[in-house]
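Here is a typical sample entry:
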Amino acid sequence: MKKDFIVLSLYEVHMASASVMVNGEIIAAAHEERFSRIKADHGFPLKSAQFCLNQAGIDPKDVDAVVMLNETFPLGGVSNILFKRAATYSVSDWIYENENYWKPKLLEKRSVNSYFEIMGGWDRVPDHYYDLSALDMKASPQIVSNVFNLIRKEAVGKLLCIPKERVVFAPHYLCHHYHAYYSGTIRGDGVVILHLEGDGGKYNSAVSKPGQKGLEIIGGSNESDVGRLYQWITLLMGMKPYNHEYKVMGLAPYATENEVLKSLKVLDPIFRIDEESMSIVYNQRPSDLYFHFRDGFKGHRFDGIAGALQRMLEKRIVEWARMVLKKTCCRRVCYGGGVAMNVKANMLLAQLNEVEELYIPLSPSDESNVFGAGYWATEQHMIRNNINPDTIPPLKSPYLGSEYRREDIFDAIESQNGAKNVNIYERINKERISELLAQGMAVAVCQGRTEFGQRALGNRSILAHPAHPGMVNKINKQIKYRDFWMPFCPTILAEDQDTHLENPKNREVNYMTMALPVKKSSLKNLQNVVHPGDGTARPQILKREINQDYYNLIEKFKSRTGIGALLNTSFNLHGEPIVNTPSDALDTFLRSELDALWMADVLVSRQPL
């Protein structure tokens, strides 16, 4: 019998993750933050890796390849992991970094201590699973990177019992291409793959096409810094980089045209399109992004800055895509990378006449590079064995994480001293939940396996009526504690999408990766999930075969209300990871003012029902 080809992929920077792939099919995937409860956690994803192997029923000795993301690290890159930078830095830390490292180094051209020393040294490094005893952070960056790679390999051997000789390193940028191509169904001739991100190593944007030896990079640049621009302007607006860029995107539609045009004068000259590299590149490169825009935006309104940043991004992405499609004579597009999380820019890309087909994969930011790494290794294995890699199956389901036993619910209740002052009911079915939602209750759900990615897709979600008066204010003030301008999102039944959304090209929007205009006739029924500034929504268009239980719940809600949609937001408190287990769910419920929590057939309610 032919042996399965098994790949374990590990990502260690912000939103550290792991996945297991067997013969090109993703069997399990998880984020380390869901186990550690540290949002955007960094470092060796031990618990995620162990979960994936256990969930897939794979003995570590049977793993053929362990693919670790990032074969090299940029200046300070090892420090980023050691400090858990994107997870632990406060806004003050980010400002301190700019004032005490980047300013003297880039603007004043002074000799400075290493980034590691300036930002706190070993005193700042939290516990890690790595054995860091051999790491001398005073050595040259190249030596630090080489030694750290050896430490990473040793960690695989010691912690997962997989021979370190099976570890290979994959280029970061390349994995975005593999995820964008192989997780979807757009294959073969006439396909071009694009990626755009903040920092991917050799490239932060690139263009590739499928070929006989796998995906082939045909253009790219490391000057496509629109992602980095979002990072530093997020900081200038008093919010956390790597965490709150989506808040800047959400704020943009509120700006007046005059304020947008005012700030656009500062932003628009920065980048241009370069046909030779097929990339967005610098036109007028600032000496430093943070300080340049801190000075340039003096006297500018915060909403105007957000609006201009979004406008500039959209303009450059559209120009870039059109140029690439013209040069390659392609009309079928796969698009990934961190900037592909910008759903408004994705909407404009989808509307282009030049784009015949478009696929934006599940959570296209860095955490999903574990998928790309698995596809990369599997493709190379298939090519070596004369197997067509286009037989790799597309992603079947985003529900790849943890599940639980019914007993775990009662263990969680017992650990909370019986969850005093709440009401507990058993044998609660979808019919009853749909009734509570129709009455205007906000119900958190912890059902089945967790979804992978940064967006909840119904199994670890807070659900509510999309038209019930006051619901947005209720969830924002009593549960999510988030900024007032941020919209909530809908899950819409596939059979009802034409009723509610403008999607004339029938683009697939299964994972909340694209905004779509809401029809005027549905603005009332979807009032709680429409962006007030521009009348769009970021939907999860749900097909029955993807999540039958969730689909059936919305069907029952529709039978009561006539609306085949629900408000769906992630089940977490602001600044915390999405819940994973019944214990996480109950703890989050008790620390919020949610109306009810539904786990399996058990309902925990604040009020008697």
In short: The two ends are 57 Å apart (CA to CA). The chain has a mean pLDDT of 96. The chain has 21 helices and 22 strands. Residues 302-328 form the longest helix (27 residues).
